[in-house]
Structure formats: structure tokens, C-alpha cells
Design goal:
95 residues, mainly alpha, 5 helices
Amino acid sequence: MPLKTKPFDAAEFLKTPEEIADYLEEAFEDGDPAFIAAALGDAARARGMGKIASETGLSRESLYRALSKDGNPELATVLRVMDALGLRLKAVEQS
């Protein structure tokens, strides 16, 4: 019998605000803009894209587009999504 698989979806594993914050912290530490955009998308989907869209005033479609691995969200979009997730960006000195 063939093994059934499905694509990995990080959003399925982001259950708590702490898990979302840790996931995004790792994405920002990685520094890859595509990974950061996709991680924000994962977090938004975990919380509910419709809810995030409502809280940011942006359409679900534009959020899905901007927060994909091929997306290029504006800083304003990133900040609005972070706010809707109950998070904020913080500058820290590199060690």
C-alpha cells in the first residue's frame, strides 16, 4: 500500500502566541526576506487570515500574495500584520 503524504504546513503547528513569536524570531534571525515573508504568512494563516485581514484593513488576497515565499510585502504591511498578531519588531545590537 503506498504511503500517503501531504505537504508540510508550518501554520498547523503554530498554536500559541509564544510559538508564533519564536517562529518569527527565527525567521528574522535567518535574515532571508523570502523566508520572513513566508513565515509571516504561516503565522497569519495559523491565527486566521480572515481575522488578520480584518484587523489590518487589507484584503485576504493581498495578504496571501504579499506573505508568500514569492511575496515582497511593504514595511507597512509587515508592521500591520505584526500588530494584528500581537507582536512588534524590536531592534537589538548584534553580538
